């Protein structure tokens, strides 16, 4: 299973990031490529405590939802609602200059994977408290999900 703990998996995502352009078309959803990059930046910042995000009500126990999303090998559904602070149409960070946003996302991925970390892991709005291993898996899956959304 792919994870950001694995340097090859991280480098794969960074290579794919370089193939996304402002004009890249979405295969599903309403986000533009610029909004998707801003969304991923917000998500990495949230995990590292750089962005405050409130817990979201979920229909299942958080641990069950977390385990299913991270470890059951099924594709994630399209259109799963993001927390408002991570939704670029609600209160997520608006995109800025595309090239700078891409560089910022790459830097956040590098910081997220640096060991030892220079931050404390924060609870996820849907999944609650997570281990470093869980965050590494989620970081890969969430980024992969959105890169596939834009054909990368």
What's the helix and strand layout?
Elements lengths: L6 H11 L15 H15 L14 H10 L26 H16 L18 H18 L3
Helix pairs in contact: 1-5, 2-4, 2-5
What's the helical proportion of residues? 40-55%
> Helical region count?
5
Order of helices and strands: HHHHH
CATH topology: Four Helix Bundle (Hemerythrin (Met), subunit A)
**Inertia-based shape:** globular
Structural key phrases:
152 residues; mainly alpha; Four Helix Bundle (Hemerythrin (Met), subunit A); 46% helix
Can you give a write-up of this model?
The protein has 152 residues and is an all-alpha fold. It has a single domain (7-149), classed as Up-down Bundle (Four Helix Bundle (Hemerythrin (Met), subunit A)). 46% of the residues lie in helices and 0% in strands. The protein has five helices and no strands. The chain has helices at residues 7-17, 33-47, 62-71, 98-113, 132-149. Helix 2 (33-47) packs parallel to helix 4 and helix 2 (33-47) runs antiparallel to helix 5. The radius of gyration is 14 Å and the shape is globular. The two termini are 19 Å apart. The mean pLDDT is 96.
């Amino acid at each position: 299973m792919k994870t950001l703990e694995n340097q090859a998996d991280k480098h794969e995502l960074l290579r794919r990031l370089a193939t996304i352009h402002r004009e890249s078309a979405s295969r599903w959803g309403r986000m533009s490529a610029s909004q998707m990059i801003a969304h991923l930046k917000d998500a990495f910042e949230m995990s590292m405590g750089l962005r405050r995000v409130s817990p979201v009500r979920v229909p299942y126990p958080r641990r069950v939802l977390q385990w299913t999303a991270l470890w059951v090998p099924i594709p994630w559904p399209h259109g799963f609602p993001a927390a408002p602070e991570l939704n670029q149409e609600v209160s997520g960070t608006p995109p800025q200059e595309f090239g700078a946003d891409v560089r910022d996302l790459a830097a956040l991925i590098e910081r997220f994977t640096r060991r030892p970390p220079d931050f404390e892991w924060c609870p996820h709005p849907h999944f609650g408290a997570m281990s470093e291993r869980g965050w590494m898996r989620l970081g890969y899956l969430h980024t992969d999900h959105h890169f596939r959304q834009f054909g990368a």
